[in-house]
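Long-time lurker, first post. I've been practising inverse folding by hand and with some scripts of my own, and I keep getting stuck on stretches where the structure tokens seem ambiguous. Below is the full token string for one chain I'm working on. Before anyone asks, I'm not after the true native sequence, just a reasonable design that respects the backbone. If someone could post their per-position residues I'd love to compare against what I wrote down in my notebook.
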């Protein structure tokens, strides 16, 4: 960044852990982009009482590294802070890829692709006409599952460290949720377009319900934790719609499922209700945003 740089007094107060938390977070965010200020802060921290401890930690980490790390790369724009180690020299695409989490760099995208391709293959190669109702029944909970697999200590070994950075908290949650939606929405919608109708709603009818269920899982996660919330939301949908339709007597199961999905997803009233639910959950999430500042709720 070429505009503002941290003044010396701010650097010294940060190194002494004397800055208020909001000011410290603002400075740390600047250090992600400014290697010069990161070097100055790193030098100031090494001159404090914590510097000796951090030097010992650095030596122990380098000694335990399986491959020798060039000293030039270790010292260049690395911040040994009393709060967190910030790799400010990483390029922006690499940081965005890390922030997106397992949603784009784990096995989850392959699983979504497998669901989409499996549905198309079942319809066109297997001759099964009821594939679209089955896909529409499952699609709304796929993003919910993706969120559960992308956020929390169970999904990210650096969860506590990431939460302590200025990019943590609700911002990190929303970044990973956006990555989940960016993977699942186009794949599943395109798959639905390639399937026969079979009396089911349109291929895009699940988008607002999927967004509403994902927002609901995040809002509920601020109270009970991400995994519990996603299990409750996804389980509630599966029991209320597909399981109920398939267990009802009379008629073909996929025909009953298509009819139930039409009631839940088709038409302006149903879509309007899902949109209102998504907006309400988003408002609740905004009101509860500070609960994510200390990591996943348990």
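-- Answer (accepted) --
I ran through it position by position. Result:
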């Amino acid at each position: 960044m070429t505009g503002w740089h941290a003044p010396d007094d701010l650097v010294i107060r940060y190194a002494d852990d004397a800055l208020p938390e909001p000011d410290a977070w603002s400075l740390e965010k600047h250090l992600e982009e400014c290697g010069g200020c990161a070097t100055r802060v790193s030098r100031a921290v090494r001159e404090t009482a914590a510097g000796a401890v951090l030097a010992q930690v650095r030596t122990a980490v380098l000694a335990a590294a399986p491959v020798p790390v060039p000293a030039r790369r270790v010292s260049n724009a690395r911040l040994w802070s009393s709060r967190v180690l910030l790799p400010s020299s990483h390029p922006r695409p690499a940081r965005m890829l890390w922030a997106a989490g397992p949603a784009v760099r784990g096995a989850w995208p392959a699983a979504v692709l497998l669901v989409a391709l499996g549905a198309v293959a079942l319809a066109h190669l297997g001759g099964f006409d009821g594939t679209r109702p089955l896909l529409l029944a499952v699609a709304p909970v796929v993003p919910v599952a993706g969120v559960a697999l992308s956020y929390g200590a169970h999904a990210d070994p650096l969860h506590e460290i990431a939460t302590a950075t200025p990019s943590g908290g609700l911002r990190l949650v929303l970044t990973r949720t956006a990555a989940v939606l960016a993977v699942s929405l186009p794949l599943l919608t395109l798959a639905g377009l390639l399937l026969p109708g079979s009396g089911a709603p349109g291929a895009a009818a699940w988008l607002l319900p999927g967004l509403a269920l994902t927002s609901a899982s995040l809002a509920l996660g601020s109270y009970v934790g991400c995994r519990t919330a996603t299990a409750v939301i996804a389980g509630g949908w599966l029991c209320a719609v597909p399981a109920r339709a398939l267990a009802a007597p009379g008629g073909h199961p996929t025909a009953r499922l298509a009819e139930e999905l039409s009631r839940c997803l088709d038409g302006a009233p149903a879509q309007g209700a899902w949109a209102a639910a998504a907006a309400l959950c988003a408002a609740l999430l905004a009101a509860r945003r500070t609960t994510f500042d200390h990591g996943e709720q348990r």
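A couple of notes from the structure itself: Confidence is low (pLDDT under 50) at residues 71-90. The first strand starts at residue 78 and ends at 80. Happy to go over any region you disagree with.
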